[in-house]
Amino acid sequence: MTELINEIITRLANAAPIIRLLVVIAIIIVSSVIVLAVALLYEGLATYAERKVAGDIQARIGPNRVGPYGLLQFVADGVKLLLKEDIIPFYADKWLFIIAPYIVFTASFAAFVPLSYSEHIYIANLNVGVLYILAISSVVSMAILMGAWGSNNKWSLFGGMRAVAQIVSYEIPTVLSLLAAIIIPASLNMRDIIAYQSGGLGIFRWLIFNNPFTFFAFFIYFIASIAEVNRTPFDIPEAESEIVAGYHTEYTGMRFAFFFMAEYGDMFVVSALATTLFLGGWQIPFIGNIVMPIWLKDILEVAVFFGKVFLLIYIMMWIRWTLPRLRVDQLMELCWKYLTPFAFFNLIGASVWVLLLHGKGVYDIITGLFVH
Amino acid sequence: MVNVDERFMEVSMGPQHPSTHGVLRLLVRTDGEVLTAARPYIGYLHRALEKIAERVTYPQFTPFTDRLDYLASMNCNLAYAMTVEKLLNIEIPRRAQIIRVIMAELNRISSHLIAFGSFSSDMGAFTPFLFGIREREFINDLFEMTCGSRLTYNYIRIGGVSKDLPEGFIDKAKEFLDYFPGKLKEYNELLSYNAIFIKRLANIAVITPEDALDYGVTGPNLRASGIKWDLRREEPYLIYNELDFDIPIGRGEMGTVGDAWDRYMMRIYEMEQSTKIVKQCLDMLAPGDYTAKVPKVLKPPAGEVYVRAENPRGELGFYLISDGSTKPYRLKIRAPSFANLSILPKLAKGVMIADLIAIIGSLDIILPEIDR
Fold it and tell me: What's the number of domains chain A is made of?
């Protein structure tokens, strides 16, 4: 995609500056719309999947009325939410109240940008991709607090305070466990990280198998990321049975839908980050160096990438519909007393490993034994 | 001039809060997440049932008792029928007595299933709720076969029951009794012994035996505090003295005797015992009358009686004064949930908001009975 855009821009080298500007703007708009459309389709299907998974776990059927197998349920939901009355509470801080869902939504979607979906399909090739995602997804906590405070509702305020405390706390184990993986390819670029994990039958050079520390780091990251996307057992900010609906208590219609979609967007982003950093991104397992057309390879890679991401998302759903919720103080205890120290230990361990073995993974060492 | 203490935030929890089990309103004073006081306000469901009783004839009041504890209508029917029968001095045929015990115990199971389910969803685990509903459906089907209703049965009437057991009831009931214990095991695996669940409930909101007696707490909540008091044993009515069943009491398996976990677990144990009772009763069933000969117009002699029965939520008592006419002179209802709720302000001091939900859920109150 990037090559195509580059080619268009180079061909327009002789055109008038204003036309070039317009073309660039058009390209930005078109590509954003494509990304947004794909992302929205994903959101819709994710809500459908969530409801089907929940139905399956809870011994019921789930949506099956709209479209084949209820697949179009999310369209019906979307239309319903659009047609709902948009209520802004009289005593709300209108500016904060209105702007908060957009920020949440934007921040959640901006995190889709540096992801690499296959060798040739990516939106932006950022050299600080991981850092960018971590930074932009932190904006969500600010926007949640804006919405919670702006609602002028006590339950919302509870939810907002809980959300900020939780997201900010869990950012630390998240980042520490990601660092344990990042120091091996020594890059923050998504594509570099994935490229580093090639070879080894497409599985054994994944960073999760690189050394014991990254193996644990993956699980720490996964637990912490569930907390970051506010899902059971860490769904304390929106704990329905405790604080009604948390920070989005007062939101209706499409504004509520923005919060809702952002949650699914966040789920995708944290799962994609885990896939990229630990599970080899779009590296196709067991294929090796079989020659095939580029388009086929790209399709396969995209399928593999999404397959891995959806597996992680499925696990999140599975956990959500199985476990009860922790209490606020227990949640913080888990973060500060267990996850953070473990993540620190892991980081130190991984650093020592890299230093002593020059970044060689377990697989490299074992195969190295046979070569000699 | 209103005195506002600025150190605390007063939140009105309910009557539309998701987990106040109906229309309970709690005025909660919080210091951050910690409660300093919680005061229940009741009466949102007041229907003046006691006054209505004075305006309708004795048999006409039976359907109103369905609306006392609507999750255990059979038990409420039973207690009322026994009250009037005691006043009239009617002897109940043996078959009717056995049918009554079967219905009361089946209803106890279905009521505890809802208690179990709604408590689990209060704790953030939504799946067990639907599991509970699934099993309750069997019992509802059995009741529907028998009397045509699925919630408000009006089946146990003064003098006996309204109809004999339908054909196929015994087989279907036996099928359920064979199926149900396996499901109880599933509940235990899924929820009761879940680490998070235990962490949330052990040592929370301990009711000491002295407190339980002082506040008039009855039913599973009293037994969870380690006091072996069950009217089915202490003042056996119907055929309970011929039946073999245990009275489970709280033993503090996960923490202190009388904590929230113990109260929750009492219900699971009681469901086991009720299964046992129904099984025995089904074997005892012999042909006979399903109702005694009761005159068309009931004119009990002047006098007063107090009859209490062991309901799923505690002791339901009816204090009935008759002036010799066709209508009660006065009917006082002693609702178990009312007494059980009275201990809430004491328990809710210094706990967190999430614990308050656990307390309400573990006390298993039901509002129509409290408000009457």
Answer: 2
Residue B354 pLDDT exceeds 60: yes
Nearest alpha carbon to residue B61 among B91, B86, B83: B83
Query: Is B179 at the interface with chain A, CB within 8 A?
Result: no
CB B165 within 8 A of CB B146: yes
User: Mutate which of A51, A241, A331, A337 to test chain B, going by most B C-beta atoms within 10 A?
Assistant: A241
Question: Quick one: pLDDT at residue B112?
Answer: 92
Percent of chain A with pLDDT over 70: 96
Give the end of a domain, one of A43, A61, A83. A83
CATH of domain B49-371: 1.10.645.10
ipTM of the complex: 0.81
Same domain, A78 and A119: no
Is A115 in the same domain as A248? yes
User: Does residue B154 register a pLDDT over 70?
Assistant: yes
Q: Which residues of chain A have pLDDT under 50?
A: none
CA closest to A156 among chain B residues: B11
Return the sign of the alpha-carbon dihedral for residues B277, B279, B283, B285: positive
Q: With an 8 Å Cβ cutoff, are B353 and A243 in contact? A: yes
If one counts every other C-beta atom within 10 angstroms of the C-beta of residue A132, the result is: 18
d(CA B40, CA B341): 8
Residues 6+ apart with CB under 8 A from A141: A163, A164, A167, A168
* Test mutation, B120, B130, B355, B356, chain A, max A CBs within 10 A: B130
Give the separation between CA B187 and CA B181, rounded to whole angstroms.
Answer: 10
* Positive or negative: CA dihedral A282, A285, A286, A288: positive
Least CB–CB distance from B357: residue in A59, A60, A242: A242
Residues 6+ apart with CB under 8 A from A354: A183, A184
pLDDT at B2 over 80: no
Residue of B nearest to A326 (CA): B196
Q: Is residue A88 part of a domain?
A: no
Query: Considering the entire predicted model, what is its pTM?
Result: 0.85
pLDDT (tens digit per residue) in B76-133: 999 999 998 888 888 888 888 899 999 999 999 999 999 898 888 888 888 888 898 8
Identify the domain containing residue A2 by its residue range.
Answer: 1-83
Residues of B with Cβ-Cβ distance to A236 under 8 angstroms: 354
Contacts of A135 (CB under 8 A, 6+ apart): none
> CB distance A321–B126 less than 8 Å?
yes
Q: Which residues of A touch B113 (CB under 8 A)?
A: none
* Contact residues, chain A, for B196 at CB < 8 Å: 233, 323-326
One-letter amino acid for residue A106 of the chain:
T
Residues B49-65 pLDDT 10s: 889 989 898 888 989 98
Q: How many residues does chain B have?
A: 372
Among all residues of chain B, which has the CA nearest to that of A328?
A: B354
Q: Find which of A53, A153, A242, A326 to mutate to test the B interface (most B CBs within 10 Å of its CB).
A: A242
Per-residue pLDDT reduced to its tens digit, A214-245: 888 889 999 888 888 888 788 877 777 777 77
**Beta carbons of B290 and B99 less than 8 angstroms apart:** yes
Question: Which of A54, A83, A112 is where one domain is finished?
Answer: A83
Q: Count other Cβ atoms within 10 Å, centred on residue B169.
A: 17
Cβ–Cβ under 8 Å, residues A174 and A134: yes
Which one, of A49, A239, A322, lies nearest residue B127 by Cα?
Answer: A322
The answer as to whether A230 is a domain residue is yes
Q: Which residues of A are less than 8 Å from B11 in CB distance?
A: 154-155
pLDDT at B319 (0 to 100): 92
For chains A and B, CB pairs below 8 A equal: 79
Pairing, β B25-31 against β B34-41: antiparallel
Residue boundaries of the structural domains of chain B: 49-371
